[in-house]
Design goal:
The chain is α+β, with helices and mostly antiparallel strands and 179 residues long. The chain has helices spanning 15-26, 29-45, 97-111, 123-126; strands at 2-5, 51-58, 61-71, 80-88, 116-120, 132-133, 151-155. The chain has a single domain (2-178), classed as Gcn5-related N-acetyltransferase (GNAT) (Aminopeptidase, 3-Layer(aba) Sandwich). It is globular and about 45 Å long. It starts with a strand and ends in a 24-residue tail after the last strand. It binds coenzyme A. Coenzyme A is lined by residues 22-23, 26, 84-88, 93-99, 121-122, 124-125, 128. Residues 22-23, 26, 84-88, 93-99, 121-122, 124-125, 128 line the site of coenzyme A.
Length: 179
């Protein structure tokens, strides 16, 4: 039975290795290293208020994880978070864990008063959990995007008005090659 938890800190030491394994299998070793290093950096360098995470476990085995980090929009009072990275253990994919984990993560963000969540990925997959393609006129990404069609977002508060002004990501994401 799969359990969902917001206590990502309890398993923090396992998370970079899990992202490495999943992205090595789905892409290649280089991508595995990049996402593993990103997760390690997020966990180490992000101020506590700017990072949230959710885990899926099955009989205490880690089977999924998502990290959420703050996007600062200095000209807008709303709280905005970025959902990335997302991973489900390779041998447990396509059984609904990813969608349940995203739904649980969005609930946790709502509980923390987050107004809007953005992500950068496959519109076909993330559309299943309410994300829609957005343009820079709706929410500016913190860096130029290599794949603008992968810039996605959803309001959690019902306020659908565009987010004002430029954005800043946390330091772990402050690398043009990640965008
Ligand atoms: C992408 C990922 C998180 C999805 O998690 P999952 O548990 O396998 O997905 P779910 O079982 O919740 O969802 C399955 C559904 O999404 C579809 N789906 C899964 N991956 C998809 C993809 N990359 N693109 C489009 N659809 C996808 C399935 O066909 C299925 O559709 P259905 O509900 O209509 O039957 C997982 O496959 C994964 O970790 N992949 C490798 C890492 C990755 O690509 N992460 C995302 C980028 S940050």
């Amino acid at each position: 039975m799969v359990n969902l938890s917001a206590d990502y800190k309890a398993r923090a030491a396992e998370l970079p290795g899990m992202f490495r394994d999943v992205f090595t299998a789905s892409e290649n070793e280089e991508e595995g290293r990049i996402v593993s290093a990103l997760a390690a950096d997020l966990l180490k360098s992000t101020p506590e208020d700017d990072l949230l995470g959710v885990l899926a476990t099955d009989r205490d085995v880690l089977v999924g994880c998502i990290l959420f980090s703050r996007l600062h929009y200095d000209q807008d009072p709303r709280q905005v978070f970025l959902m990335s990275p997302v991973a489900v253990r390779t041998d447990r994919q396509k059984s609904g864990i990813g969608q349940r984990l995203i739904g649980f993560g969005l609930e946790q963000l709502r509980l923390h008063g987050v107004d809007f969540v953005a992500t950068y990925g496959d519109p076909a997959y993330y559309g299943k959990t309410g994300f829609q393609p957005i343009t820079e006129a709706v929410a500016q990404p913190p860096m130029p995007l290599n794949m603008p069609h992968g810039w996605l977002g959803q309001s959690l508060s019902g306020d659908e008005t565009p987010i004002e002004g430029p954005s800043r990501c946390v330091s772990a994401f402050n690398r043009p090659d990640l965008w």
